[in-house]
Design a protein that fits this description.
Layout (H helix, E strand, L loop, with lengths): L3 H4 L2 E2 L11 H13 L10 H21 L7 E4 L2 H14 L7 E5 L4 H11 L4 E5 L9 H7 L4 E7 L11 H10 L3 E5 L18 E5 L11 E5 L37 H17 L1 H20 L4 E4 L11 E5 L4 H10 L3 E2 L1 E3 L4 H7 L7 E4 L7 H16 L1
Parallel strand pairs: 1-11, 3-4, 3-5, 5-6, 6-7
Antiparallel strand pairs: 2-8, 7-8, 9-10, 10-13, 12-13
Helix pairs in contact: 2-8, 3-8, 4-5, 9-12
């Protein structure tokens, strides 16, 4: 049995937020807070200008990472949830004709599901398509769901519950062919999978800073395709056009009311720098190896049920399991208290997903999510701990 005090915590909850971060992330955020934390764009003095340079660098790196045509297409938010709300509500707040139809999947996070349930109350129609856990959202199913008033398709690139990966290139191409806007939720893929918003025909991309991009909490963003008009869901100080009683129309200020998280964006820039240095292919390959090692080990333990794509499937770095006759909460508690391993149990803020995979009434699943900074030893220790939990 591994004593957590001897080994330190083994963190396998990167789907909720990456930990630890590269040292460069801590250093950049700390330096910005101590030396450069003026209010970006709110003055001409050196600290304000230093802070603005931090924001500009982070925006430039985001545009480079996602192949956005201009840094001005990147809007910074405090998380993916804010970005998704801005996109969904901003779109339908700006549509002049009444009604409208949205297509989404049955595996979505509440950050997508709840705004859509909210819009349904005001007359927007929503179709929730079932998803094959191994292959993702089916393009033919999307075609059959299209209506004359379909305005938007929104789905996760990778499910935060099962790790199911959607082919967003094919989905984006279909949407572009049919003049439908495509909003991709990259909460589990940004920084870990290749995302090219131009090649993939993505009109809007919501992403977190604190997960695969390895930045601090309180950072995230929204890519908005040039020429796409969204209504703002917030108005206020932007540092530009202060004499106008109306929100400025220019990007990115139109959607960035209030003071930005400069230390957080400094850390985010450092995290993206780390990713760009390593390269997405290397990160994806390493995470894939760790996931295959984890699934192969799970398949050898009698009494554990894997819920999601199987071995060697094209999938994300998220694995959900259940253990016969044991509650997910008890398993996660034992993994932490006895073995010093951080995993997550429950519904993972995605009750629609658990309803569709049959685990809603079971208290959800135990979710294990390694990332690039984990090692093979972490997976082996996790598997030993899971086997002990089955037998205890």
């Amino acid at each position: 049995m591994i004593n957590k005090m001897e080994k330190g915590i083994i963190y396998l909850d990167n789907a909720a937020g990456s930990f630890p971060k590269p040292e460069s992330v801590y250093a950049a955020a700390d330096k910005a807070m101590r030396e450069k934390c003026g209010n970006p764009g709110r003055g001409g003095h050196r600290l304000s200008l230093s802070a603005l340079r931090i924001v500009d660098e982070a925006r430039l790196l985001c545009a480079r990472l996602f192949n956005a045509p201009s840094p001005e297409n990147i809007i910074f938010t405090n998380n993916t949830t804010t970005a998704l709300n801005m996109a969904i509500k901003g779109l339908f707040g700006g549509i002049t004709e009444p009604g409208g139809h949205v297509i989404t999947s049955s595996l979505e996070h509440n950050s997508v599901s709840r705004p859509l349930y909210y819009l349904e109350r005001s007359g927007i129609e929503v179709t929730r398509l079932p998803v094959d856990l191994n292959s993702g959202l089916n393009v033919d199913s999307i075609k059959k769901a299209l209506r004359p008033n379909t305005k938007l398709l929104v789905c996760a690139h990778i499910s935060n519950v099962t790790g199911t990966l959607n082919d967003i290139s094919s989905i984006g191409a279909l949407c572009r062919e049919n003049n439908i806007l495509f909003l991709a939720d990259a909460a589990q893929s940004a920084g870990a999978r290749l995302i090219d918003v131009q090649a993939m025909c993505i009109d809007m991309l919501a992403f977190p800073g604190h997960k695969g991009l390895l930045g601090p909490q309180g950072t995230g963003g929204l890519y908005i395709r040039r020429g796409l008009e969204l209504k703002t869901i917030m108005q206020g100080g932007t540092g530009s056009d202060p004499e106008s009683p109306l929100q400025p129309e220019s990007m990115p200020g139109k959607f960035e009311s209030g003071t930005l998280n400069t230390p957080g964006l400094a850390g985010l820039a450092a995290g993206m720098g780390f990713i760009l240095e390593k390269g997405i292919p290397e990160i994806e390959q390493r995470e894939t190896c760790l996931i295959n090692q984890l699934i192969e080990g799970i398949n050898r333990i009698h009494g554990i049920r894997l819920i999601g794509p199987g071995i060697r499937c094209n999938r994300g770095s998220v694995v959900s399991i259940s253990i016969e006759n044991k509650s997910p909460a008890d398993i996660a508690l034992m993994m932490d208290a006895v073995f010093g391993i951080a995993v997550r149990s429950g519904l993972h803020c995605a009750p629609d997903a658990h309803r569709s995979i049959g685990t809603l009434d079971m208290g959800g699943t135990v979710r294990i999510s390694p990332n690039y900074l984990n090692g093979e030893d972490d997976i082996n220790i996790c598997l030993d701990a899971l086997e002990h939990c089955v037998k205890s």
